[in-house]
Amino acid sequence: MERISKYQLGAMIILFQIGSTPLFELGIKAKQDAWLVVIVSMIMGLLLLLLFLAIQRREPEKNLSRLLVHYFGPIAGKIVIFIYVLFFTYESFRNVRDLGDLTLMTILPRSPISLIMLILMSLSVYAIYKGLEVFFRVAEFIVTGVLVFYFILIVMSFISGTVHLDRLLPILENGIQPVLLESIRSVWFPFGQMFTFLMFWSYLNEKKAMSKTSILSYFISGIVILLTNTINLVVLGPQFSDISTVPLLQSVQLIQIAEIFERFDALVILLFYAGIFIKSTLWYLAAVLGLSQLFNTDYRRFVLPVGVIVYSTAFIPPNWQSHLELGELVGVNFMMNPILLGMIPAVLFIIMLIRGQANK
Amino acid sequence: MKRTMNKISQPEHTERLSSSLRKNMDRIKSLTGNSSDFITRTFQGANGLSMAIVYINGLTDTTVINDNILKPILSETEADMAEQRTLADSFTAIKDIFLTVGTTNTVNKIDDFMSALYNGNTVILAEGWDLAISASTSKWEQRGIEEPSSQSVIRGPKDGFTENINTNVALLRRRIKSPNLWKIDRKIGLVTQTDVCVMYLKGIADDAVVKEVLQRLDRIETDSILESGYLEEFIQDQTFTPFPTIINTERPDSVAASILEGQVVVLVDGTPFVLVLPVTFFKFFIASEDYYQRFDIASFLRILRYCAFTVSMLLPSLYIAITTFHQEMIPSTLLVSLAAQREGIPFPAFFEAFMMEITFEVLREAGIRMPRAIGSAISIVGALVLGQAAVEAGLVSAAMVIVVAFTAISSFVVPAFNVAIAARLIRFGLMILAATLGLFGIMSGLFFLLIHMTALRSFGVPYLVPVSPFVPKNLKDTVIRVPWWMMVTRPRLFSKKNNVRQNVNLRPDPSGKEEEKS
How many C-beta neighbours within 10 Å does residue B22 have? Predict the structure, then answer.
């Protein structure tokens, strides 16, 4: 069986969590308190993470699909796995489309979106064919670069004098309630998505380091998300962050130092590209692994079929706006995130507890 | 087809020498087709024993043959011989008493007989023996030890490997005076019978790697090995990759350093280039001089090399991408001057860059192959005609010439030539991607390369160690080099056991006695 090290796991968590998140301004409904929303939902997400870790620690060698079959029974378990496979595929498609639209809107306005998404998908297919271990090592290789680059962007925002900290005032203008409500909505993305690692924690070679590494890298990614979120608020102000399509891009465009360090937006797109590539591939890999464990065969058989589905569904939303609306509809109105990322894991954990008691 | 050909030209392994001198001599003559450089001399030993010596002209030292073989045998006295009644006695007497050469061996098969000749030995036969004595008399003209032409240094030893495998082994033995430096010999190539040897430091090199190397060497069944490049392609892990997974070098000091780190080296007779394996990508950026110069300067130079490699791979494609797709990234004043330069250029940036890159590659290849005497002509053509005149004629922009020139210079900074070539090849792919999809294309290309390189292995060692998989302890000698006293451990993954290289408290302490480490 392929194995991953704690560094690889940590790198993957950081990149996966950052992923496409800086594209969006989390919790902007709470206006200038959006950064508080990030902090609160990060803490609430930590609870979810602890739940996932608790599940995994009871059965460190079984991944999600084995756990579901074992505790939900073969039939119900397999149905739930299949639902998760659909969910992973859906999330992968979202990221692929994110990148397609993002590239089209910014650096390559005249290129066909089909080509851009095709290239992303081919890279994913290639990475997955090379195996899980190779893919995790790719994340390990680029994580330092990504973190350093985000750090440089943040520092440069400060140096270039575009930061106006007073834009965070007044804090808690409308009381704590809007912040909490907004946090409950945004806990699922991206923090609740740590759920995906239930598919991968079992590959870790040092099980002892699992919780520590996961929580540490969860916080590192959380801090990056918090900082980029806050930079948007302090550079653009809450109103403009709300209406801007990709606020971080706008904030970065304002950086101007010594007439040389300016107009970094194309590089920021590349940064997004790295994050989205990792994230969509991990979802994709999770779907493929889920399917292979559902049918008990080699996972490479499912790489192309799933890839074709991801690629073709990525054309469904006619434009970026409806892509976002679809996300809202599925994630919030259909309650998909709370059910799949919150309730089912909780039920699973309870069943594990009960069975554990019964066995004693 | 080939196999049958070899069977005809090569004696059977089992064919033994006959006890008749005449038959043996005829066999040798028929095998070699009476080639005139096979010298045979028949004579009568002192006690009337009819004998013969065989050697190859040019591979042997005739003074040794005269003074140490012929003279002792011919000047045996009757009294000496009277002792020896039987043929076996005369054989041991000659082998052990009379011959005054360094090594003597007993040969009983035609096969061994021939290979003894090829190694420059002189073989002594006699009527009635079904054995022969091979005495070492080898001496042939060879290049002396010179400074390596492909990897030169400012500070450090100036000797380089030669074409002789024994000299090369000796150069290593002189550096590592330890019985643990083990050497395993192989002969590869059915026709060429090339000597190949594997050397490693027992107890530090990974035994699994040694075993794997030997297995891969033993698998080779080919007619010829003329250079270590032949072997490299037979034993490397992955063929379809631009990246080399085995280092070749002609510097004994860097090979010795590799052996001391637990790597395995393969020496091939007939070439000064020694293979070092397993390797990681970052090893190609290490020059042996890094360890002789001050650590801070060495670290700086190493970082410079990584940057230069990136530049040599990326610069033309970045230029294409930015001027074609992302003009907004160029600072305004520069943009204006670039636009002014490009105004009269009839080609798109991609075509312009492609043309210039090809031109430069041609120049470079010409520079290597051409006769030395016309070197200056090439540089005039290169600098004036293709550079200045092309700009003045309005075919290419001056900025493009700068880009190509800088790219070219950068590619020479990498110490290992084979990795520098990889960058040259990749550059063209990236230029096409840049011309079609701009920065997005370049980034996709780099991701592809990254996945590819992550999946590469060199004898089981992942190619991108120590960055991915991350091995913090190995970082001390990758991008930077820490001072010698801090390099307490050997790189993990090359040597799994016996990791400690030196004492921990070696930091020079001015208050105590300072020690120089070399």
Answer: 12
SS3 B341: helix
- Identify the DSSP state of B462: E
User: Which among B329, B455, B469 has CB closest to A140?
Assistant: B469
- Give me Rg for the CA atoms of chain A: 20
Nearest to B123 by CA among B139, B136, B140: B136
Residues 105-164 of A with CB under 8 A from B: 107-108, 111, 115-116, 119-120, 123, 126-127, 130-131, 134-135, 137-138, 140-142
Q: What is the mean pLDDT of residues A100-113?
A: 89
Q: Of B411, B437, B457, which residue sits at a domain end?
A: B457
Radius of gyration of the CA atoms of chain B, in A:
30
Same domain (yes/no): B239, B326: no
Query: Is B482 in the A-facing interface, judged by CB distances under 8 Å?
Result: no
Tell whether B260 and B381 lie within a shared domain. Answer: no
The rounded distance, in Å, linking the Cα atoms of B290 and A254 is 42
SS3 assignment for B297-322: HHHHHHHHHHHHHHHHHHHHHHHHHH
C-beta contacts of B84-87 below 8 A and 24+ residues apart = B84/B47, B87/B126, B87/B128, B87/B129
Strands (E) in B269-363, as ranges, are 274-277
- Residue A350 CA to residue A344 CA, distance in Å, equals 10
Q: What is the pLDDT of residues A268-293, one digit of tens each?
A: 898 999 999 999 999 999 999 999 99
pLDDT in tens, B34-74: 888 888 888 887 667 788 889 998 889 888 888 888 888 87
List of residues 6+ apart from A117 with CB closer than 8 A: A96, A97, A99, A100, A311, A314
Residue B270 to residues B168, B192, B194, Cα–Cα distance (Å): 10, 11, 8
Query: Is the Cβ–Cβ distance between B410 and B308 less than 8 Å?
Result: yes
Q: Which domain holds residue B243?
A: 165-279
Cα separation, B223 vs B408, whole angstroms: 38
pLDDT in tens, B103-150: 888 888 888 888 888 888 999 888 888 888 898 888 888 888 889 888
**A310 domain residue, yes or no:** yes
pLDDT above 80: residue B88? no
Give the other-Cβ count within 10 Å of A82's Cβ: 14
Whether residue B479 lies inside any domain: the answer is no
Lowest mean pLDDT among A159-168, B159-168, B213-222: A159-168
Banded model confidence at residue B513, pLDDT cuts 50, 70, 90: low
Domain assignment present for A1 = no
Count of domains in chain A?
1
Are B215 and B261 within one domain? Answer: yes
- Amino acid symbol at B489: T
CB A15 within 8 A of CB A142: yes
ipTM of the complex: 0.94
Q: Is A356 exposed, middle or buried (0-12, 13-18, 19+ CB in 10 A)?
A: exposed
B501 located within any domain: no
Report CB contact under 8 Å: B464, A126: no
Q: Which residue on chain B is closest to A275 by alpha carbon?
A: B447
- The stretch A220-244 carries a mean pLDDT of 91
Is the minimum CB–CB distance between B336 and chain A shorter than 8 Å? no
If you measure CA to CA, which chain B residue comes closest to A102? Answer: B440
Query: In terms of pLDDT, which residue wins out, B317 or B93?
Result: B317
Q: Which of B408, B437, B457 marks a domain boundary?
A: B457
**What end-to-end distance do the CA atoms of chain B give, in Å?**
55
Residue range(s) defining the domain that contains residue A113: 6-359
The CA distance from A283 to A89, in Å, is 7
Q: Which residue has the tokens 């009568």?
A: B44
Same domain for B218 and B316? no
CA distances from B102 to B29, B45, B121, B138, B498 (A): 28, 22, 11, 11, 38
